[in-house]
């Protein structure tokens, strides 16, 4: 059990690449913190600094209240699961899972007990004699996970562990990781650039952009009140619609607001906007039926918008629609892209 605290952590790589520019995050004991952000924003760098695999240029990383900047990876009591989890191909599942413990000189019966316990938890008990090539992708991923959990570390670090799996398996594994993390209660940091994975896994979600934290908090709080246009367009799929504030049919802009945003699911077709709501004249450009719902891609005021409607939409390309959004569903952002609405 452990807390993980980052204080103004910085990383400058050789050649003056400023990858992490002062990140502070407090992770509670047993919590699952997800770092999400576009490629190159510094997620892996940050994780590797927590693991001790990368030197820290500035600031502090603390585990259980103790600064670990100068402590080597082996002494930090951390287990990491990578995207390329690289199992030993010639070793059986059992030996892959036991490897780390054997290296540390753990007694044989203790190793056996821990491996079997982890295999039970991960539903791998019947596969212990197989070799990695005789397993499915999801089973291999679970072995990689098993290798981490047998160590009973203070902290788990995951760097895009599911990105090699297909969509269905990713969904299953996501649920398994969440349950596993809950039941083991091990403080975890999970890196992904998949916003859906981030939303569903996180106790605390940290949205990063270009080496800084744009917003941190509970996933639904971030979804409902994105702190910037960057967060608004990164969290949620399809992303939030954005238009310049102040056009015809717009409510009076909040002081300092330049951009008006609304989510695809908050917009309505041909429904009065209500007091202070937004009304836009739109033309349908494309219709995307995905089963339970449809996405209407529209043009309005020179912008492209998406409206999410239930079931089949009945709309066709070229149809003229009135798109409305009630006032309480509007988001306002200033010139710098920062949220101005409450
Ligand atoms: N060893 C290195 N030397 C120099 N620059 C590096 C090194 N490793 C990473 N970088 C740079 O640091 C920045 C952050 O990289 P990082 O790998 O942390 O991004 P990331 O958020 O994990 O991206 P992705 O989602 O693509 O994995 C990038 O601009 C990258 O090019
Ligand atoms: Mg990365």
Task: Characterise the protein shown here.
This protein is of the alpha+beta class. The protein has 2 domains: 4-229, 3-Layer(aba) Sandwich (Rossmann fold), CATH 3.40.50; 238-248 and 258-333, Nucleic acid-binding proteins (OB fold (Dihydrolipoamide Acetyltransferase, E2P), Beta Barrel). 25% of the residues lie in helices and 32% in strands. The chain is built from 8 helices and 18 strands. It has helices at residues 43-51, 93-103, 108-121, 137-149, 167-184, 195-201, 219-224, 229-234; strands at 4-13, 17-27, 32-36, 58-63, 66-67, 78-81, 155-159, 187-192, 204-209, 212-217, 241-244, 259-262, 268-269, 278-289, 293-300, 303-310, 320-325, 331-333. The strands form 4 sheets. The chain has a 6-stranded mixed sheet, sandwiched between helices. A hairpin with a 3-residue loop joins strand 14 and strand 15 (293-300). The longest helix has 18 residues, at 167-184. The model has no long low-confidence stretch (mean pLDDT 93).
Explain the layout of strands and helices.
Layout: E1 4-13, E2 17-27, E3 32-36, H1 43-51, E4 58-63, E5 66-67, E6 78-81, H2 93-103, H3 108-121, H4 137-149, E7 155-159, H5 167-184, E8 187-192, H6 195-201, E9 204-209, E10 212-217, H7 219-224, H8 229-234, E11 241-244, E12 259-262, E13 268-269, E14 278-289, E15 293-300, E16 303-310, E17 320-325, E18 331-333
Parallel strand pairs: 3-8, 3-9, 6-7, 7-8
Antiparallel strand pairs: 1-2, 1-4, 4-5, 9-10, 11-12, 12-18, 13-17, 14-15, 14-17, 15-16
Helix pairs in contact: 2-3, 2-4
The chain binds adenosine-5'-triphosphate and magnesium ion (MG).
Magnesium ion (MG) binds at residues 43-44.
